[in-house]
Amino acid sequence: MITMDDIIREGRPTLRKVAEEVTLPLSDEDKKLGNELMEFLENSQDPQKAEELELRGGVGLAAPQVNVSKRITAVLVPSLDPNVEEPEFKDVLYNPKILSHSVQGACLGEGEGCLSVDRDVPGYVVRQARITLRYYNAEGEKKKIRLKNYPAVVVQHELDHLNGVLFYDHINEENPFTLNEGVLVIE
Ligand SMILES: CNC(=O)c1cccc(C)c1Nc1nc(N2CCN(c3ccccc3Cl)CC2)nc(N2CSC[C@H]2C(=O)NC)n1
Ligand code: NI
């Protein structure tokens, strides 16, 4: 089971490497890793388990963050409406690729956090507001979906991890809170 001890932090070289594509059909090892990444997110979002296991809450976790340089990431974005059980987006992505995206940008109004960054780095991380994503799921099926707003931001943050990019690489040094015309601020 993955815990915070398995998550590597800034300064570890794997976080800055471009991860390797996984071969298809998926090996048992790659399927197991995908399940473990998802299990971490589920545990981290369960108040009791998060406290017991001392986990930081996360909605995305990529294989390079547990020192495995492979293009695998799990995403579990809960519905913002607490009465809705169904998550907004939940899947393990193998060899994910953004096929196209909107011109419009979007960012989280509160900035971004990362399980591999043990400090607050304030500022807007402007990403694409809408994306068309292609990936293979744990069953090896090729999926092509469109995402927008929070799930789209999370997937782009995780895909950055597969390319050795950290969220604060996108923050404007001069003014971290600069906002260009038309950028959607997600609260
Ligand atoms: C500096 N200000 C901030 O961090 C920040 C501050 C306020 C609001 C937001 C919205 C912020 N931003 C931000 N908050 C999150 N979470 C909110 C809490 N949540 C969570 C925590 C506990 C249980 C269940 C859950 Cl659901 C987990 C997810 N996650 C991300 N990111 C960036 S994209 C990948 C994703 C990620 O998983 N990071 C670890 N950013
Ligand atoms: Ni991260």
From TrEMBL:
Superkingdom, natural source: Bacteria
Gene Ontology molecular-function annotations: metal ion binding; peptide deformylase activity
Broadest EC class assigned to this enzyme: hydrolase
Record bears the keyword Protein biosynthesis: yes
Active site residues of this protein: E158
Gene Ontology terms describing biological process: translation
Ranges in a coiled coil: none
Pfam families, A to Z: Pep_deformylase
UniProt keyword list: Hydrolase, Iron, Metal-binding, Protein biosynthesis
Cofactor list: Fe(2+)
Transmembrane regions listed in the UniProt entry: none
Protein family per UniProt: Belongs to the polypeptide deformylase family.
Alphabetical list of PANTHER family matching this protein: PEPTIDE DEFORMYLASE, PEPTIDE DEFORMYLASE 2
Name of the protein described by the UniProt record: Peptide deformylase
Organism whose genome encodes this protein: Tetragenococcus halophilus subsp. halophilus
